[in-house]
Specification:
The protein is 42% helix and 23% strand. It has an eight-stranded mixed β-barrel with strand order 19-20-22-23-24-25-26-27, surrounded by four helices. Strands 3-2-1-6-5-4 form a six-stranded antiparallel sheet. A five-stranded antiparallel sheet has the order 8-7-11-10-9. α11 runs antiparallel to α12 (342-358). The protein is elongated and about 125 Å long.
Length: 727
């Protein structure tokens, strides 16, 4: 019942009539009712929550009464007309103050005013101070018919009120919207102009209203979508209707900018009307251009990147025409970085890219392949002499002195050349052959262009054999994990273990990562092997924990391919769930290569892992380009001091200073730190004195199989049996 009352009050409010001035048409109906039915008083009343309001009345001086004494409060509660011939004799009303005191009502007849939804919001009533002997059927019909007239008028009023509310809401939304909202009539003259439209186009409301839509676009643009906008009229704007298009907008000051426009139409008073929503997409265009450049261009040199190069090589092969692929490397670039810093090195790379670009015609493509290595594809070049001659011209250009600020630097260049189809008919083959030729050019003394020859194919074949062997190793389960202890420097207590992959080759024996890891990381199976390492290490760590061992953490190295697939977080969660290893017992190690090529997906994945309570360690910090800002941006928990600094800790003051700086930096960022490559007692003492708490290295134990590791540290008698990465 309470819900119905609230709905009734809401229906009443929609008419906006309670405190409004008397509606003349309702006053006329009231007068007609009094005259036709011979009543001294007639009125239209509305029943609010706690009062009755007399809106139109004749013969009555009251403006309102309390609801609890109102006759009409009873009328709205019933379906049909309520007639009281003598209120003084009616037990429902004889004690009512409206009966016993002025206006001394004795006769009353009222019809409930019900909306289309069935809500009785008020009444049409007759009243008088004298009782009546009868209220005939004819009288009832007349009063009911007049009530219908009142309802018709009320419905018209409700529609007008709803229209005003809709217009008000539209204007409010339009004025608060960040998009410009513009309306125009059938002649293309603007009749609504939002605040955002003023901000976007510069015209005030006074300037814009009545003006043609043509002022929104440059005068010179008569064709295309701009022309369609200028010619808006019935039947002529169909190319734009119902679509979202981009066109050129014109500001009041003459400035032009890209605008995204959505246009709709409707009928107003039998005439076409138009509405447009417009937004400035300049920022989006800039973002799209930036994303395109990030995806296709090297950020430092603005040359095409490796992905674009591979695509162009594939395209040249598909055209069934000869093509030359050249791999170039700057000779002496490492010395520039070491002596002058990376800022100067970056400047040299930019200059080298500019020179290389001038050596390539419009059909060719020069790209940065990575580091100080570049690559060029020359479609249509199949002659060995021509290809090597172009390679030598590039060497000459890259060997000119480089002036960076006040410093003059002299470098050389080496080039490897491969030809299609002579040396290969696949993109990866050609790049591998050119790379093998580049390696020979550098081995033969640098500063020369070397053409790929069959004997160099052995290099590529060895790499291919490694790839094939890796595929077999995955299928046959030939990978194993060894574990290197991480200990407390103060007392030698075991704190953790780093899981390190090895290849148990059926013919060559146990292979270290240097023999295969680069090929694996660049192959299609890197992520699958990485996930196998994760699962196996977690299972082994949990097996040791189940045997009552002091709870140690397990460190697992990640590869870039595990981030590219987008399933890293799920893979870690699955490994933890399947093995039962607590998340805080797992520490994932990332390298500078991964962190410097970060994107939002990588950051999001690391943040999700950290939220799971998984540790994140940064391996070999300080050996490359990694900046301090990365420590702030990435959710790290530990830094690992590279073994190169630890090896020189006792002899080289610079290495000692770097170690101390990394330890202090870790403490400032609230990070743990572990030193790698500790081999002597003196190194242990020095690290402990500098505040380093944990370390790993040959002093504490080489990487070893799980059974040997468990026996040495008295963990348990058993170890988990490794599964195949193919499983």
């Amino acid at each position: 019942m309470q819900t119905d009352e609230e709905a009734r009050l809401q229906a009443l409010a929609e008419h906006e009539i309670l405190d409004a001035e008397t509606d003349p048409s309702l006053a006329h109906i009231v007068e007609l009712a009094a005259r036709l039915l011979g009543a001294p008083a007639a009125f239209v009343s509305f029943v609010d929550r706690d009062r009755q309001v007399f809106h139109a009345k004749v013969g009555l001086s009251l403006c309102d009464t309390d609801r609890d004494v109102a006759f009409c409060a009873r009328t709205i509660a019933q379906v049909d007309i309520l007639v009281v011939l003598d209120a003084s004799q009616d037990p429902r009303f004889r004690d009512n103050p409206l009966v016993t005191d002025a206006p001394f009502i004795r006769f009353y007849a009222g019809v409930p005013l019900r909306t289309g939804d069935g809500h009785a919001i008020g009444t049409l009533c007759l009243a008088g101070p004298k009782p009546r002997r009868a209220f005939t059927g004819r009288d009832r019909r007349i009063l009911t018919d007049l009530a219908r007239l009142v309802l018709d008028r009320l419905e018209l009023r409700r529609v007008q009120a709803a229209r005003r509310a809709t217009q008000s809401r539209f204007e409010h939304i339009a004025d608060t919207s960040s998009d410009a909202i513009i309306c125009a009539d059938a002649h293309g003259r603007m009749n609504f102009w939002s605040a955002a439209a003023e901000r976007l186009f510069g015209h005030t409301v006074a300037d814009a209203l009545g003006q043609p839509l043509a002022i929104l676009v440059p005068e010179r643009m008569h064709g295309g979508h701009e022309g369609d906008l200028c010619r808006i009229a019935p039947g002529t704007a169909t190319p734009l209707l119902g679509r979202t298009v981009e066109l050129t907008g014109r500001h009041k000051d003459g400035r032009e900018f890209p605008v995204e426009l959505s246009l709709c139409t409707w009928t107003e008073n039998g005439q076409a009307a138009f509405g447009a929503i417009a937004r400035d997409v300049s920022q989006r265009r800039m973002v799209e251009e930036r994303l395109f450049r990030l995806a296709h261009l090297d950020a430092l040199t603005e040359l095409p990147n490796r992905a674009v190069l591979r695509g162009r090589v594939e395209a040249a092969i598909m055209e069934d025409r000869p093509a030359a692929v050249l791999m170039l490397d700057l000779d002496g670039f490492k010395e520039v970085n070491d002596a002058h810093g990376h800022a100067v090195g970056d400047a040299v790379l930019r200059l080298a890219a500019r020179r290389l670009r001038t050596c390539v015609d419009t059909m060719g493509v020069a790209a940065r392949y990575g580091g100080d290595e570049f690559a060029v594809v020359l479609p249509g070049v199949g002659d060995p002499l021509t290809a090597t001659s172009k390679g030598q011209a590039m060497i000459d250009a890259l060997s000119e002195p480089y002036r960076v600020e006040e410093t003059v630097l002299r470098l050389g260049a080496s080039v490897g050349v491969a030809l299609s189809p002579a040396h290969g008919v696949r993109e990866d083959e050609l790049l591998a052959c050119a790379d093998a030729a580049l390696y020979r050019a550098k081995m033969d003394g640098r500063g020369r262009a070397c053409l790929f020859t069959p004997d160099l194919r052995e290099v590529a074949q060895r790499e291919r054999a490694c790839r094939d062997g890796l595929r077999r190793a995955i299928e046959q389960g030939e990978f194993v994990l060894h574990y290197q202890p991480q200990v407390s420097l103060s007392d030698g207590a075991l704190m953790g273990a780093e899981a390190l992959i090895r290849w148990q080759h059926p013919e060559l024996g146990l292979l270290m990562p240097a023999a295969f890891l680069e090929v694996l990381d660049n192959g299609p199976d890197a992520a699958r092997v990485g996930d196998w390492v994760l699962r196996t290490a977690c299972a082994q760590a949990q097996a040791w924990r189940r045997d009552g061992v002091h709870p140690i953490r397990i460190g697992v190295n990640l590869c870039a391919a595990q981030f590219r697939g987008g399933g890293l977080v799920e893979a870690v969660a699955t490994a933890l769930a399947e093995t039962g290893l607590p998340a805080h017992a797992l520490e994932l190690e990332i390298t500078e290569t991964i962190i410097l090529h970060h994107d939002p997906e990588v950051v999001a994945a690391l943040q999700a892992l950290r939220a799971m309570d998984v540790g994140i360690a940064f391996d070999d910090y300080g050996t490359g380009y990694a900046s301090l800002s990365l420590l702030k941006r990435f959710p790290l928990t530990r830094l690992k001091i590279d073994r190169g600094f630890v090896n020189g800790l006792c002899e080289d003051r610079h290495d000692a200073a770097i170690v101390r700086a990394v330890i202090d930096l870790s403490r400032s960022f609230g990070l743990e730190v572990v030193a790698e490559g500790v081999e002597t007692e003196e190194q242990r003492q020095r690290l402990l004195a500098k505040g380093c708490q944990e370390a790993q290295g040959y002093l504490f134990g080489r990487p070893m199989p799980p059974a040997e590791f468990a026996a040495r540290f008295k963990l348990c008698r058993h170890h988990t049996r490794p599964s195949s990465p193919a499983a």
